[in-house]
Amino acid sequence: MLDLQNVETGYGAARVLRGVSLDVRAGEIHCLMGRNGAGKTTTMKAITGLLTLWSGELQIDGASVGKLPAHERGKEGISYIPQGRRLFSELTVAQNLEVGLMTRASSRAVREKVLDLFPRLRERLGQRAMTLSGGEQQMLATARALCTEPKVLLLDEPTEGLQPTMVTAIEDVVLQMREEGVAILLVEQHLEAVLRLADRVTFIENGQSRKTVDAGELSAGDPLVGRYLGV
């Protein structure tokens, strides 16, 4: 579904990614793990088009999309939930969802399906996003992304700072998206969450993808965890 080959990019003259290669299959949760500053969020931005690829190849379903602007990649089925949510805080819940629907001209039935996943949002459609709790804002960010009917869903630490009940609600929806065939790339720092959710894990270090393994092979004491996540 999603395929990155030797992707390089950065900020200004500073090169951050130095040859990242990974693939995410349809109906898979693929977790990207590494220390702070390893290049995880930069990889997400390179996929979405928020950063221009300096070199390398990015494909969806075998079609090259690496030269498309960000809004065109959205139309091709890439949806991104960034760390910090990035909602339109002055807009209502309903208006934020409308922005998602507009991306790929999704139907009202899509909105209803998404609200069925997040019934709490249905109760708050007229409420401004800035007045929601942190967990509700994460729900809204996720719901807005799902309104685009994504082929590829990118999530950057979606449960950070949330209470356990909200974490469970978000994780349940992510698992459902996997069951529906969405290719999911997840940045997550907590190994416990990775072991609950992920099918495969790619470790990134100094802007390079180092190792990809089946999540079922990992444990807290695995040498790979100490090598790529240890302080």
Strand content: 25-35%
CATH superfamily of the largest domain: P-loop containing nucleotide triphosphate hydrolases
> How are strands sequenced across the largest beta sheet?
6-7-8-3-9-10
Which second-level CATH architecture of the largest domain applies?
3-Layer(aba) Sandwich
The CATH topology of the largest domain comes to Rossmann fold
Category by helix and strand content: alpha/beta
Order of SSEs: EEEHEEHEHHHHEHEHEEH
Which ranges are low-confidence, i.e. pLDDT below 50, for 5 or more consecutive residues? Answer: none
Spatial gap, N to C terminus: 34 Å
Number of helices: 9
DSSP, total strands: 10
Helical fraction: 25-40%
Q: Briefly, what CATH class of the largest domain?
A: Alpha Beta
Number of domains: 2
Overall residue-averaged pLDDT value: 91
Our Rg estimate from Cα atoms comes to 17 Å
Shape: globular
Architecture blueprint of SSEs:
Elements lengths: L1 E10 L2 E11 L3 E6 L6 H9 L6 E6 L2 E2 L5 H6 L2 E4 L11 H11 L4 H10 L1 H4 L11 H13 L5 E5 L7 H16 L3 E5 L3 H7 L2 E6 L2 E7 L8 H7 L2
Parallel strand pairs: 3-8, 3-9, 6-7, 7-8
Antiparallel strand pairs: 1-2, 1-4, 4-5, 9-10
Helix pairs in contact: 3-6, 6-7
Describe the structure.
This protein is of the alpha/beta class and 231 residues long. It folds into two domains: 2-77 and 150-229, P-loop containing nucleotide triphosphate hydrolases (Rossmann fold), CATH 3.40.50.300; 88-149, no CATH class. Helices cover 36% and strands 27% of the residues. It is built from nine helices and ten strands. It has helices spanning 40-48, 70-75, 93-103, 108-117, 119-122, 134-146, 164-179, 191-197, 223-229; strands at 2-11, 14-24, 28-33, 55-60, 63-64, 78-81, 152-156, 183-187, 200-205, 208-214. Strands 6-7-8-3-9-10 form a six-stranded mixed sheet, sandwiched between helices. Strands 2-1-4-5 form a four-stranded antiparallel sheet, with helices on one face. Strand 7 (152-156), helix 7 and strand 8 form a beta-alpha-beta unit. Helix 3 packs parallel to helix 6 and helix 6 packs parallel to helix 7 (164-179).
